[in-house]
Specification:
This protein has about 600 residues and is an alpha/beta fold. The chain has 3 domains: about 240 residues, Glutamine Phosphoribosylpyrophosphate, subunit 1, domain 1 (4-Layer Sandwich), CATH 3.60.20.10; about 200 residues, Glucose-6-phosphate isomerase like protein, domain 1 (Rossmann fold, 3-Layer(aba) Sandwich), CATH 3.40.50.10490; about 150 residues, Rossmann fold (3-Layer(aba) Sandwich). The strands form 4 sheets. The chain has an 8-stranded antiparallel beta sheet with strand order 3-2-4-1-10-9-11-15, with helices on one face. Strands 5-6-7-8-12-13-14 form a 7-stranded antiparallel beta sheet. A 5-stranded parallel beta sheet has the order 17-16-18-19-20, with helices on both faces. Strand 5 and strand 6 form a beta hairpin. Helix 3 packs across helix 4 and helix 7 packs antiparallel against helix 15. The model has no long low-confidence stretch (mean pLDDT about 95). Bound molecules: 2-deoxy-2-amino glucitol-6-phosphate. The site of 2-deoxy-2-amino glucitol-6-phosphate has 14 residues, from helix 10.
Length: about 600
């Protein structure tokens, strides 16, 4: 969602701001803007196009202090007037990520004080509020701190003043923001990838932090206004890891990175034949021995990973597991189990609904929490008692791919640890061996790419598609359908195959391609009967079948042979062709694969 970049240097910061915005494009946005201080004046440029358009509009803009923003519309349509930065009386300029919940009340009050509003956004109230305090003679820092006390909701903020070319104030509560520490220059950004060309030394700001940034120094104040030191960390993310290289899209690159992402995630277990709870944190062994059930909370693709894990946790570890969509759980009156392990799953660690669901669980006394996340120092990681970092590397494409398969790996490890602790893990060495083999098994599936690219040509003219799976592959069907709709805009639904005859079979005709995941497992014969039901109604079948399933090609039955069966880890392998299918169908349709319409990478608002 919205992205923030700010810079203060002894050189023109406009190219730094633009490059930073370009690197934040993956988060999703529909307008962009920047403002610099130049000769005690604010110079603002905004655009409803891509960052490239903003760059051409700001070709003549120069300044050594500036803030910039990509906006994903919440309050008010995507338009120039609603694009950030927002200003108050040509003095204060603000960029904001998050939502101010009490903005209507503040807007009414500020209007009565004579402030004129030029946008429909919630952000504009922040600019006027800060201005009102600044005009009373307060410093910019104090003006921001005072204004923040009146705000309800979430924010990451960058603030500058026309008459103060030496300071940038930033703050965060509920939305991510970090400080980039340079030599004789300092920066702020929503995520580190924006700053990699200028620095890899970062400070992850904590909830409630306010920072006074100057060229050579910075002062951080905590939520109570007390000066604090925060550690400077050297980001492990390299500039190359966020470059596209020879790939056409980030999604394609990230699909192909899955073997290395999985082996990196497995690093902690790869050198041993057994798995210990310590991989989830120092307190994990003690915590796991207290828990009697698992509650998984997540959104979208991460939710699908949780659904797969439910099968593993109940079958292998023998522990009861429920999986809930975070945005539902947070508002549902549920009965807390104080001995449950609450597992939050998130690629970004920023998802507002997942964060709120975690807080809701904690508020109800469920203190045993584990975050499985791809971003170190993310809000979710910091708010959880235990943590596991998937090592997928930066995921830029909006459609989550390598983050999903590495989440599955992390959840499988969790299953093994819990199974072991409960005395149920008889085949530990075999499982570890299967995990170690996974990267090469995934690579073999990736080698099917040319075949899937050809197959995709048959989907480009379709308007609907149905995905089927059974057991732990039902969530994989859901994930396949989500990928297809997300990037190709083809309407896709997923069902457990046994559910077909209870309704969706009515949809099946020659125009409805039916894609089925067909692993060689105990449900295979049942699945085959379900596929017959489709064929009997003239449905065109595309079956991703493991070797030895004996599903043969015939008229209307297209079989795509998978290289091998991976037992419990089969959902990981079956995900890959569905990602590739979605990718190549989107290519056929010419959609914006990495930045699909209306979507954002990090969903930091409700
Ligand atoms: C996946 O392709 C989606 N873009 C989306 O469903 C995503 O998984 C969801 O928003 C959750 O994000 P998170 O993993 O960062 O919490």
């Amino acid at each position: 969602m919205c992205g923030i970049v700010g810079a203060m240097a002894q050189r023109n910061v406009v190219p730094i701001l633009l490059e930073g915005l370009q690197r934040l494009e993956y988060r999703g946005y529909d307008s962009a803007g920047l403002v610099v201080v130049n000769d005690k004046m604010l110079e603002r440029v905004r655009s409803t196009g891509r960052v490239k358009e903003l760059a051409s509009r700001s070709a003549d803009t120069q300044g050594q202090l500036g803030i910039a923003h990509t906006r994903w519309a919440t309050h008010g349509a995507p338009s120039i007037k609603n694009a950030h930065p927002h200003q108050s009386r040509d003095m204060i300029a603000v960029v904001h990520n998050g939502i101010i919940e009490n903005y209507e009340e503040l807007r009414a009050r500020l209007k009565s004080e004579g402030y004129e509003f030029t946008s429909e956004t919630d952000t504009e109230v922040i600019a006027h509020l800060i201005h009102s305090h600044y005009m009373h003679g307060n410093s910019l820092l104090v003006s921001v701190q005072t204004a923040l006390k009146e705000l309800e909701g979430a924010y990451a903020l960058g603030v500058i003043a026309a008459d103060n070319p030496n300071q940038l104030i930033c703050a965060r509560r509920g939305s991510p923001l970090l400080l980039g520490v340079g030599i004789g220059e300092n920066f702020v950004a929503s995520d580190v990838s924006a700053l990699l060309p200028v620095t890899n030394r970062v400070i992850y700001l904590e909830e409630g932090d306010v920072v006074e940034v100057e060229r050579e120094s910075y002062r951080i104040f905590d939520a109570h206004g007390k000066p604090v030191d925060r550690a400077v960390q050297v980001s492990e993310i390299s500039n190359e890891s966020v470059q596209l290289g020879n790939y056409r899209h980030y999604m394609q690159k990230e699909i192909h990175e899955q073997p290395s992402a999985i082996s990196d995630t497995l690093e902690s277990v790869c050198n041993s034949t057994s798995i210990s709870p310590g991989i989830f944190g120092a307190d994990a062994a003690a915590t796991f021995s207290e828990v009697n059930s698992i509650l998984i909370l997540a959104c979208g693709t991460s939710y699908h990973a949780g659904m797969v894990a439910r099968y593993w946790l109940e079958e292998i570890a023998g522990i009861q597991c429920t999986v809930e969509i975070a945005s539902e759980y947070r508002y549902r009156t549920s009965v807390p189990n104080l001995n449950a392990l609450v597992v939050v799953l998130s690629q970004s660690g920023e998802t507002a609904d997942t964060m709120a669901a975690l807080n809701h669980a904690k508020d109800m006394g469920q203190g045993n929490t584990l975050a499985i996340c791809n971003v170190p120092e993310s809000a979710l990681i910091r708010a959880s008692k235990l943590r596991f970092l998937t090592r997928a590397g930066p995921e830029i494409g909006v459609a989550s791919t390598k983050a999903f398969t590495t989440q599955l790996v992390a959840l499988f490890l969790l299953t093994l640890v819990l199974a072991k602790q409960r005395g149920r893990l008889v085949q530990e060495t075999e499982f570890v061996h299967a995990l170690r083999h996974l990267p090469s098994a995934v690579q073999k599936v990736l080698d099917m790419e040319p075949q899937i690219a050809t197959l995709a040509e048959r989907f480009a003219s379709k308007h609907h598609a149905l995905f089927l799976g059974r057991g732990m592959h039902y969530p994989i069907a859901l994930e396949g359908a989500l990928k297809l709709k997300e990037i190709s805009y083809i309407h896709a639904e997923a069902y457990p195959a046994g559910e077909l005859k209870h309704g969706p079979l009515a949809l099946v005709d020659k125009d409805m391609p039916v894609i089925s995941v067909a692993p060689n497992d105990t449900l295979l014969e049942k699945l085959k009967s379900n596929l017959q039901e489709v064929r009997a109604r003239g449905g065109e079948l595309y079956v991703f079948a493991d070797a030895d399933t004996l599903i043969s090609e015939s008229d209307g039955v297209n079989v795509i042979q998978m290289p091998e069966h991976a037992g419990y880890l089969s959902p990981v392998l079956h995900t890959i062709p569905l990602q590739l299918l979605a990718y190549y169908v989107a290519l056929q349709k010419g959609t914006d694969v990495d930045k699909p319409r209306n979507l954002a990478k990090s969903v930091t608002v409700e």
